[in-house]
Description:
Elements: H1 2-19, H2 22-25, H3 30-33, H4 42-61, H5 70-99, H6 104-125, H7 129-133, H8 135-154
Helix pairs in contact: 1-4, 1-6, 4-5, 4-6, 5-6, 5-8
Amino acid sequence: MRFYIIAGYLFTAVFGTLSHFLYDCSGQNLFIALFAPVNESIWEHMKLSFFPVLLYAFFLSYIRQPEKEFHTLRDALLLGNFVGTFSIPVLFYTYSGILGRHLLAADIAVFLLGLFFAFRFAWKGKDTVRTDSRRKWIYLLTALLALLFFTFTFYPPRIGLFLDLS
């Protein structure tokens, strides 16, 4: 079980980092824009965590393990994905508000810490009955957030979270 948490963290860290450059490398492909950041806004950078963790959760669906808690790991990871994804703007605005600017090294640390929160939450929630009983809500909220990412990629609201910081 621990192997899947560590492997997932490493996979999502690498895949999320690479996806930062995917949109430009794809020639600004509109399909890729749905899943990879199209600018330097905090909202777009939340995709770096959300979609790689979602992809890894799908991968977990295809692994057959007899351990009882393994079956709720995917759902706990999807729930943890909210914690990790939304910790990114919280951490970013906290540190950049204190410093008065943002730093590349701190931005990378915020991303990695967000992933850590997602997987730590999944590890803690993998064997709880509450996670299993809320499966439908977890799936619905995950689909809703994905839809919001898709929509706001092309029609971002005019608020700070969506401003291009480059």
